[in-house]
Predict the 3D structure of the following.
Amino acid sequence: MSWDMWMTCFKEGEVATFSCEIAEAAFKPYIMERQGNDWVLNFPDDGSGQVSVGYDEANRNLVNSLGFNRPSSSPYFWNALIDILRQTDTVLYWAGEGAVVARESTIANLPESFIEAIGTPTVTTDIQEIHRMIEKA
């Protein structure tokens, strides 16, 4: 079964950007190939995955979102996500209800329509808690 997960940056209720260097630093040891806007990942524990990078149209040094189809179960993958969440005003979310932010201050940047559709994000960096939330969705 295929499922998707997304990470989007918001500032003052609008889609915003963060430095691509943050995403690159989190995933760099695992990027095996770049195909257009996609990064193919391989992890030391034989896990793999793909990240679809939402580059800013005017500046490819900025990113507004990351997409994950069939996210890897590798802890390397999840630790990279947590690194990005901690450094940016991004929210991690998936189909159904549920979303996560690492910083409570990020919630104030989300559009009201996002919270109405997905719910107020949980503030956590605990990977097991995130997995439980996803399983409930």
Observations:
- The beta strands are 4-11, 14-15, 18-19, 31-35, 38-42, 48-55, 62-69, 90-94, 99-101, 122-123.
